[in-house]
């Protein structure tokens, strides 16, 4: 292998911006590292180049461990997005710079420069200065400079990001041709899926510091194994269904599978994927070219050159949860994306508001990961209650579940687990791990190892009041707080919302959990005491009604309630009056101060409290960490 990465990790301010990335890249391979901004892909490239030190793991190039070597001893060529050319040097001097540093003779430098100018299509322009070239020509100079010393590995960090669309296409083709001609092992970083598909022999998909999937472009597009890859690599329609003996079931509908989904146990919950081009449209059910999904309406049409994009609106399918496209908050229907060529559009023209039947040519099933739960125990009676309640939730949700013993050894942990073995029976993929650290540090260590949706934590009056804040800040998870008295499953949730984007996540995750529990919900918004502003009441009412419709789409019955008064007293009164057994509140934006909800947690409450962490805070934290790291290197 030309490049081997072993558990490569980089942290900033305690947050892993690259999390245990392992990867092997073959000799002469063109590998594309793909992911959204802040996913850690550029940091991986800089660690390979030696421009950023790693906190853990190894980098091997051509069989050599170069982890501790400076960049100039790694035999690497690097092309940056912003060219980084020397403005006071000519094109030829820029290209020959690396050779001059290596003390190559003038004749060798001149010969190599002429070869590369010819190779990148700039023959005769060696005497010009960078300011006299176009952006595309400057990027070609940067590429030639990186190739001049004949590196074993070529790294390119979004090199075409500053170029216009036409030049990008031309540069991609030239780069692929040059790479094949030279046979140099290449890693190309981008967030552009089209660029990745055109260039890569293989792709690696990254998100929040983790490498999620690796494979050929067509394999990852047609048969992805993770929800993120399915939705990031092009448009995707993704619904939650179930396997059958000969296909998949979406509520009352059954479909044959167009691809193999691996070794799926039957029946099993799966995510059903169909791409926009897999959609069939017709004026009647009998005229459909594929199995029918339902009758719907055209929400939007967009001309896109050689094809037409459509957004279709379908009624809710009973028992089916939409994953992508995400239904607009407050909607009671599904959205389906479709594409068709211009000939199909001319044969069957459609406009916004018109009805048609929707069918599906081809489907692919991904194993549905379900909820992932982390149960935390330190051996106390309070943490035992958390294990008991968390175990019951895990069994109902078919959740991937881990138990960590904070400050316990393996013997103590197993004794603690044994005490509630009956409640934990039947949980799939149960793992246990003893961590000799405080509760907050143990959670941080475990959530760096693998991601979780929900941390279930026992908490009592004697606990550090900052513990919740520390656990929330340890990862991208939500937290369920359980006191000693709480072991019964919640049947009715009170979801407290203040409106805005963060509150939408409160509703969505609380609804997902309530659906697994078979619980009903009340949506509560509390206005300030004595506040009687019609606009505020109208805005809050609209949000509550939209939230109730969203929960109905998740098959969770919900009622909206608007109150005014002191926050803590109003919430507690509503909990008592409505017979609620689960309180849901949103965590404030970063910093993860729980000052807003601490009064609610004061004392030992008689119900579990779900604290939903805003994805905006998580994304902002990781983005800031990545940006800060880039500044430092």
Task: Provide structural commentary.
With 633 residues, the protein is an alpha/beta fold. 33% of the residues lie in helices and 30% in strands. The protein is built from 19 helices and 31 strands. It has a 10-stranded mixed sheet with strand order 24-23-22-25-26-31-30-27-28-29, sandwiched between helices. A 6-stranded mixed sheet has the order 6-7-8-3-9-10, sandwiched between helices. A hairpin with a 2-residue loop joins strand 9 and strand 10 (210-215). Helix 2 (91-101) runs parallel beside helix 4. The longest helix has 20 residues, at 534-553. The model is unreliable at 589-593 and 629-633 (pLDDT under 50).
Which characteristics define this entry?
10-stranded mixed sheet; 6-stranded mixed sheet; 33% helix; 19 helices; alpha/beta; 633 residues; disordered C terminus; globular
Write the topology of this structure.
Elements: E1 3-12, E2 15-25, E3 30-34, H1 41-49, E4 56-61, E5 64-65, E6 76-79, H2 91-101, H3 106-119, H4 135-147, E7 153-157, H5 165-182, E8 185-190, H6 193-199, E9 202-207, E10 210-215, H7 217-222, H8 227-232, E11 237-243, E12 247-250, E13 253-256, E14 269-274, E15 279-282, E16 292-304, E17 307-315, E18 322-324, E19 333-341, H9 342-347, E20 355-360, E21 364-367, E22 372-377, H10 381-397, E23 400-406, H11 410-419, H12 421-424, E24 430-435, H13 439-449, E25 454-458, H14 467-472, E26 478-482, E27 492-496, H15 501-517, E28 520-527, H16 534-553, E29 558-564, H17 567-578, E30 582-586, H18 598-601, E31 609-612, H19 615-632
Helix pairs in contact: 2-3, 2-4, 3-4
């Amino acid at each position: 292998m030309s490049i081997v990465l072993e558990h490569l990790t980089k942290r900033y301010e305690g947050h892993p911006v690259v999390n245990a990335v392992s990867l092997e890249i073959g000799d002469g391979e063109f590998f594309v590292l793909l992911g959204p901004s802040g996913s850690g892909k550029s940091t991986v490239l800089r660690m390979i180049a030696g421009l950023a030190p790693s906190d853990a793991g190894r980098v091997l190039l051509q069989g050599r461990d170069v982890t501790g070597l400076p960049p100039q001893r790694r035999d690497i060529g690097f092309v940056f997005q912003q060219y980084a050319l020397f403005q006071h040097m000519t094109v030829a001097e820029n290209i020959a710079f690396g050779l001059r540093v290596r003390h190559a003779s003038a004749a060798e430098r001149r010969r190599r420069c002429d070869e590369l100018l010819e190779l990148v299509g700039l023959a005769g322009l060696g005497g010009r200065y960078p300011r006299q070239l176009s952006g595309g020509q400057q990027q070609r100079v940067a590429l030639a400079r990186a190739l001049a010393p004949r590196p074993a590995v070529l790294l390119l960090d979004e090199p075409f990001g500053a170029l216009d669309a036409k030049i990008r296409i031309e540069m991609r083709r030239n780069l692929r041709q040059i790479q094949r001609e030279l046979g140099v092992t290449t890693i190309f970083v981008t967030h552009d899926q089209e660029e990745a598909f055109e260039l890569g022999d293989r792709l690696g998909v990254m998100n929040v510091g983790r490498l999620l999937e690796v494979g050929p472009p067509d394999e990852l597009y047609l048969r992805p194994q993770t929800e993120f890859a399915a939705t990031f690599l092009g448009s995707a329609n993704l619904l939650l269904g179930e396997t059958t003996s000969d296909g998949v079931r979406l509520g009352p509908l059954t479909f044959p599978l167009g691809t193999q989904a691996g070794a799926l146990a039957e029946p099993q919950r799966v995510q059903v994927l169909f791409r926009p081009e897999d959609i069939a449209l017709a004026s009647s059910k009998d005229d459909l070219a594929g199995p029918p999904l339902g009758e719907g309406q055209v929400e939007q049409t967009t001309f896109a050159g050689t094809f037409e994009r459509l957004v279709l609106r379908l009624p809710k399918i009973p028992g089916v949860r939409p994953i992508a496209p995400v239904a607009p908050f407050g909607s009671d229907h599904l959205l389906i994306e479709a594409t068709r060529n211009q000939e199909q559009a001319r044969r069957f023209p459609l406009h916004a508001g018109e009805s048609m039947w929707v069918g599906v040519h081809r489907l692919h099933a991904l194993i549905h990961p379900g909820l992932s739960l982390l149960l935390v125990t330190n051996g106390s009676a309070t943490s035992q209650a958390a294990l008991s309640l968390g175990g019951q939730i895990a069994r109902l949700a078919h959740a991937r579940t881990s138990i960590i013993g904070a400050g316990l050894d393996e013997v103590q942990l197993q004794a603690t687990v044994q005490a509630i073995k009956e409640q934990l029976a039947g949980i799939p993929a149960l793992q246990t791990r003893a961590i000799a650290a405080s509760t907050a540090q143990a959670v941080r260590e475990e959530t760096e190892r693998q991601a979780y949706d929900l941390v279930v934590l026992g908490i009592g009056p004697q606990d550090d009041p900052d513990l919740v804040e520390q656990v929330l800040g340890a990862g991208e998870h939500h937290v369920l707080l359980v006191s000693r008295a709480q072991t019964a499953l919640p049947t009715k949730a009170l979801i407290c919302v203040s409106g805005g984007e963060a509150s939408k996540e409160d509703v969505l995750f609380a609804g997902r959990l309530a659906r697994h529990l078979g619980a009903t919900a009340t949506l509560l918004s509390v206005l300030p005491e004595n506040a009687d502003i019609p606009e505020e009441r109208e805005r809050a009412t609209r949000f509550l009604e939209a939230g109730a419709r969203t929960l109905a789409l998740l098959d969770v019955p919900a009622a909206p309630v608007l109150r005014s008064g002191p926050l803590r007293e109003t919430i507690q009164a509503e909990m008592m009056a409505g017979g609620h057994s689960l309180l849901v509140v949103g965590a404030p934006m970063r910093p993860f101060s729980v000052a807003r909800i601490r009064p609610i947690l004061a004392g030992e409450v008689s119900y579990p409290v779900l604290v939903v962490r805003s994805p905006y805070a998580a994304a902002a934290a990781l983005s800031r960490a990545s940006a800060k790291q880039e500044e430092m290197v």
